[in-house]
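Problem statement: downstream parser choked on a complex file, so we are re-checking the raw output for the NAP run. The parser issue turned out to be on our end (a line-ending mismatch), but while we're here, posting the original submission so the record is complete.
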Amino acid sequence: MSEKIGVGIHGAGWVADEHLNAYMANPHCEVVAVCSRKEESARRAAEQCGAANATIYTDYEQLLADDRLQLLSICTPSHLHVQEGVAAAQAGKHFVMEKPMALDLDGVYALRDAVREAGVKTVVGFVLHWCPSLINTRRLLQAGAIGNIFYVETDYWHGVDDWYGGWDWAITKAEGGSSFLFGGCHAIDAARWLTGLDIVEVAAYGGGWDKRYEYPPTVVGIVKYSNGAIGKISSSVDIVAPYQFNIDILGDEGAIRDNKLWSRPLAPASSDWAEFPAILPDSGDVEHHPFEGEINHIVDCILNDVESDVNIEDAVNTHEASLAMDMSAEQGGATIKLPFRD
Ligand SMILES: NC(=O)c1ccc[n+]([C@@H]2O[C@H](COP(=O)([O-])OP(=O)(O)OC[C@H]3O[C@@H](n4cnc5c(N)ncnc54)[C@H](OP(=O)(O)O)[C@@H]3O)[C@@H](O)[C@H]2O)c1
């Protein structure tokens, strides 16, 4: 493909600037349009990110009707993702969908089916796939550093208390969904992506202290994985401490704790954990997230006509598990089996 890929952004808020900056840095892309509910928001984002020549839209249908547009990032509040993603697929546009992709099961499958039908390329915003420490962890697991995995634990702990003033939508059930849908889906995705395992069973409890959320802000679930391994995944959006993303993976030949490795096959005479210095997932600020990796990835998928391993199809299990956490917590820890639908 010799011409540049025409790119658009929809929803010009906090995360949109990072998508825009990443597209601006990719030599195969030209940002042709920015769309948002308010014209001034779209214009601000375009100008701030150096895309001042982009066409400004306030109507999503007009954005999708723009012939120059081949790829878009959907960065609107979460309750809008399904209808906007389905419309993008039907218009034949490739898209990056911010997480969560849907707030209910019908939405998850509607998106999956629309993307299957249209055959467009997609990436769901699990940006930790490009976090250096997680890249190391995945490579070590693939190399058999800890043998067969029998326990996987991940935690997304991100107290958004101080700055959710501008995020009125996120604390509601109707627009933000739940603790797992709002943030903890990153922990579910990481557990799956690092290990290559799906989640097949969930039993969860909800709690937390911050009553401003319409849903329990802290939820913890015991999970069973597709190879029979067990584990625990939690999501807290009311932790009173700096952002934490914990990873513990146990195998029959060793263990990984964040960026520390104990490996019998690789280093049998070790007297302590080996540490792999790398950038850790230790900030909730989108300016610290590796969006360039995510955007370069969808561009590569389009240019090379390959499917992403973090596309809508892959994200179905992550969202089923997120929704299962909420269902189980509502039922006081009932066991929920996945998948819900084929
Ligand atoms: N991958 C990640 O790590 C990550 C990080 C942060 C956020 N996210 C996700 O990205 C999405 C956007 O989050 P954000 O933090 O960027 O949110 P935000 O700052 O509130 O921005 C959302 C923008 O969407 C526009 N919008 C369009 N319709 C709207 C409506 N009905 N209600 C409210 N806003 C509407 C608003 O633009 P106007 O100004 O034009 O009204 C708003 O600026 C969410 O799904 C969130 O979960 C992902």
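For whoever reads this later: The CA atoms of residues 139 and 234 lie 24 Å apart.
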